[in-house]
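Input sequence (422 aa), recorded before submission:
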Amino acid sequence: MADQIYDYTGPARVCHDGHVYYNEHVMREAYELPPLEDRDRTKASIDEPLDVIISGGSMGGLFAATAMRQAGHDATVYERTEAGKMKDRGAGIIAHPEMLAYLESQNIADWDELATVTNRTQHLNREGEPIDTEGRATYTTSWDTVYRNLRAEVPDDRYRMGKQIVDVDQDDDGVTVTFQDGTTETGDLLIVAEGYRSHTREQFLPDRSPEYAGYVAYRGVVPEDEVPAEYETRFGDIYNLYHAPQSQFLTYPVPGPNGEMERGERRINWVWYYPFEEGEALDNLLLDDQGRQRSHSLPPGLMREEVHDEQIEIASDVLPEQLQWLVSATTEPFVQCIYDLAIPELVFDNVCVIGDAAFFIRPHMAAGTAHAAADALELAESISNTDDLETALAEWETDQVEMGYRLVEEASRRGDRYTGQF
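Predicted structure, token format:
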């Protein structure tokens, strides 16, 4: 019953205040972007460019590299994952119009090449029928689609894989990082974009670690052309939400594996928030099919058959029919543990921490990618607008810490509410 989960009776509703769902009139045209052929790539020319080291080659690191290079600085990304092993992470992403507008305005990728759009949000009952519909447009994309376009902006000699930072030293000449292979690099500024398990953050803030929130996100995608005819109208250009007493399930379309946007060529992304006690139960969930004990997530393709079977069985007990089908039809489901993380400072002399390495914002705010992008873009802008690097970093830190704490607090409140954890 809805009133067992929420503090009011009536249809299960998600709080959209401050969220990334927009009324249908908030479309691309509202940003008044000129045609692609009429735009020039922004690239500043400065007298004393910084030598920037960026640790982490996912979204935050790529946005940082793009922004710093556009500001005229020399930026090199170091990613710990070895070449050829960068896996799809997170599958579906809610795309902020501001982020899409930035990428298009800088001639990185056309808006329509990055995101598809849903035309309404439906709240489902146990039978899978909509009990409430909101006419909201939601822009959706995928990790791999955004990654490909951002990665293309960074020259190969400035994106180095298999390079994990294990130590950081600073002196009057700048920052020196030591990699796991024993090599070192020196720069003027180190941007830490290593994600919520950041080793570098731990060096500066050893007492700040992610705190498990008590539930996980089962995730997966299914090719849209595999959806049975009886379910075609259940997905399509729709953002679906379903609430059981202790879990939340949502679906939305995302681009196909190669960025396809046409209906029938996309993928249906799904996320299922479900409680798991820390300890033996969670360890069993995260034990992969090769016998390796994972600690924070289970990557695609590594879920044991018995775990997937149990997932399907639970789905049959608590989910509407079409959502049950999504769970059972997913060939490579994966698991993301949900955490809270907030740190009181982002700048340590000439080292700054951005994105999930600083603030792990539960996905209920649809803010993870946009927050990492905002951190990076605001950092580059602050440095460009301030003569003194120390002052620029201090001013940037003040704004980003305030925003990060606000987002973490609100996302935690929503997550506890949506999963019945009061």
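Checked by second reader. Residues 389-418 form the longest helix (30 residues).
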